[in-house]
Structures are given as structure tokens and as C-alpha cells.
Amino acid sequence: YYSLGVLAWTRGDFVLAQKLAEKSLATHTGVKNARGAGEASLFLATLWWRRGEMNKAREFYLRYLPSRRESGDAYFVMHSLQGLGAISQNGDEWDRAHDYFAEALNLAERVGDHTAIADLNSNLGTMAEDHGDWAQALTLYRRSIVLRKRTSAEPYGRNVVMANLAQLFTRQGKLAEAERLIEEILELAGPNPSRDLQFIVGVCRIQ
């Protein structure tokens, strides 16, 4: 059920993905497979988050967090904390979001997950920028970009971080640096950049 749910999700069928994830959770719970149930719960949290149902997403992120933390499942805890951080940031719960992201970053560094380290540096960068700490935001964005280029992580995430950095340059009045970064983003994105990336780039240029 879990694998079929992931396949449905990749094909854009979120309704089917959710049904399959719920069946996966029920099955693993029935046979008392805590690890499998935790993975299904994490998947459901992501699906609810994508639908904008933050309370539901928080519920599923938290459901198996204590037991997986106790069992030492660092990857599960790391991804749960990152999700909870994003939900808290979306709800303007800044201190809680920072604590979630910081703990997740410590775990990512401990297990050597460079993609997660890049993501979490970006998360913390957006928080620093929103709080007006532009120097810290600049450091975190650049660190995220360097890590993504080094690990050959999927290009979309790298381009979004670069777009965030371009927006920061724009806010600082460093228009030439922002424009150079935008040109690099568009070159890396290829002939068919995604609509949301085009939107971010458009906002930068309007500003």
C-alpha cells in the first residue's frame, strides 16, 4: 500500500495516495510494526501538509515521533522535525519553528545527510530573512546552495534557494547581484522552468 501510495503521489493523484497511505498505516498498526506505521504516518503528514491542512499534518508528524525518537530512528525524527518546523513557521510560531529546524539540522549533520542539511540551512535562512537578520540569511542561503551543488541534489530545490537569495539581494538594493543570480537560475532551469520558479523570478525583477 505504501509503495503504491507514493506512486500515486508522484503521478499527482493525492486522493488515491492518501487512501493507500491510510491502508498502509492501518495494516502496519494491526501487526504492530511501529517502524512501518511511522513511515506511513509521515507520508500522511506530508499529504495533509500539501493540502494545506496544517493541524492534520501536525497530528501525523507528532503521532509516532516519541516512539521513533526513543528507538533511535534519526531519519524519521529528522524529517518529522523539519515538517513540524515548516508548519510552525507557516503559523508564525517563530521560536518553535527555529527549535524544530535547529534540532533537525543537528540530526542531519550527525547522520551526514547533505541534502537535508542544505534544506534546513535554507529553512533557517528564510527565518533569518523574515526577522531582518540579512547577514545570517545570506550565510545560510549560500551554504545551502554550495551543499546542493556539491551533492548534485535535485535542481528545483537549488533554484528555489538561489531565487530566495536573489530576493534578499533585491531587498538590500544589490540589483546587479540579484540580476546575475536570476540569469544563472534561468540557465540552470533550462528551456521550461516551472511556473512557481518563473513567479519567484518575476517578483524579484518587479521589486
Short structural summary:
This protein is mostly helical and 207 residues long. Helices cover 84% and strands 0% of the residues. The longest helix is centred in the middle third of the chain and has 18 residues, at 94-111.
Anisotropy-based shape: globular
Low-pLDDT stretches are none
Beta percentage is under 5%
Count the DSSP helices.
12
How would you spell out the order of helices and strands? HHHHHHHHHHHH
Distance between the termini: 46 Å
**How can the largest sheet be summarized?**
none
SS content category = mainly alpha
The percent of residues in helical segments reads: over 70%
User: How many strands?
Assistant: 0
How would you describe what is shown here?
The protein has 207 residues and is an all-alpha fold. It is built from twelve helices and no strands. The model has no long low-confidence stretch (mean pLDDT 85).
Which descriptors would you attach to this protein?
207 residues, single chain, mainly alpha, 0% strand
List the helices and strands and how they pair.
Blueprint: H1 2-10, H2 14-30, H3 34-50, H4 54-63, H5 65-71, H6 74-90, H7 94-111, H8 114-130, H9 134-151, H10 155-171, H11 175-189, H12 195-206
Helix pairs in contact: 1-2, 2-3, 3-4, 3-6, 4-6, 6-7, 6-8, 7-8, 8-9, 8-10, 9-10, 10-11, 10-12
